[in-house]
Amino acid sequence: MRTDTNLSIDTEAIALSLKNQSRCSDSELKEILVRARQMKGLEADDVAALCTISDPEILADLFRCASEVKEEIYGKRLVLFTPLYVSNLCRNDCAYCAFRTSNKGIARRALSMDEIAAETASLIDEGHKRVLLVAGESYPRDGFDYILKAIDKVYSVKRGSGEIRRVNVNVAPLEKADFVRLKDHNIGTYQIFQETYHREAYAKVHLRGRKTDFDWRLAAMDRAFEAGIDDVGIGVLFGLADWRYELLAMHQHIRHLEKRFGVGPHTISVPRLEPAEGADLASHPPHPVSDLAFRKLVAILRLMVPYTGIIMSTRESADIRRETFALGVSQISAGSRTNPGGYSDDEKKSAAQFSLGDVRSLDDVVADVARLGYTPSFCTGCYRLGRTGADFMDLAKPGDIKTHCAPNGLSSFLEYLMDYGKPATQKAGMISIANSLESMDPEPRRRAKIMLEKIRQGRRDVFC
Ligand code: SF4
User: What is the pTM of this model?
Assistant: First the structure.
């Protein structure tokens, strides 16, 4: 059943905007950056104009502006999660993905519930609290029930005081009725990427299966919202089409959701094409995005939708990840494996979806992030207190969310350090916590101190 969303990407408007704004003067670009500092988001023409920046001085101003906005809204927090791949079965044929159905050379595997429990236990023992459950776009015998059972299984695993407290889900676009069932299983964010908003580019790389239907995928978030899921994550696989086009199309998608449902996506993911076994195109992106353009697009996104989380995966190298934290990234995956069974059972060797640029362990990433002055956060408080969708934005926009997130981030970080951190990580972490407390406003600092004391005394899962 097709949903009538009235959503279509207006390619002519994008082309016009890019053409007109290419003539923007330096002073006009600077004016846009002044407006961006007000943290009210940007209109399409502003986004198109910022895409044209090449002057080093204005580029530096763009990066500075994005850093300031990031700091003002998110402080020093960086939320950590990891993907949990439960299956690499897939009926689609995406030219950039190792799981594509035409790739006959890889071992296929859908984890049993016991195997999912073993994977979950490994992740909990590493210190994770949030996972993104991922599956290829076809399921074993039980159909979609397999995913629902997998979610329940992840939540059911306890290891002392360790547990997964938030399961986000990245699975194929669903009918509305299945989105309703998904919501009933206590998920955090439902995430799906359009891959590319460029219809022709999309057709060239999606060769078989349900995913060939561009409109079905584009309307997925409408169906999710209609089903009551108000916490959704969108994304683009950068490299399939011109990144400037993708930003403006994403802008249209977000404005559509805001207009229709009163709230946009909770997160935006920014994967770049990376080599994948049996998928040559992934090594030769049709529209490669240079490191400089990538940093630029992250900074522009930060200004375009200041209150929307930006997710950076381990596709990128440690260096690029570090650089983009300051430019607007608010969530990162760490210690990731992209093959089913990759955390607990590497013996069975199933194929990974793509190559990783950052293969460090969670603890190494935590130590690095702390040394850079950030607070690695494992907090799941908002979602568990029902602060999602419009309720989250109502808190976030006046800046109130900081009084919750900053103390919650610190208490979840201390919990990690005490239960899982290696000595060197603990040392770096304690310094980072002390510095964060010092730079906090009085009220959140008061709250944070009380919460940290509770963690020191042995309480766990303390949030406000
Ligand atoms: S990208 Fe997703 S849908 Fe496409 S082949 Fe890979 S797993 Fe299947």
Answer: 0.94
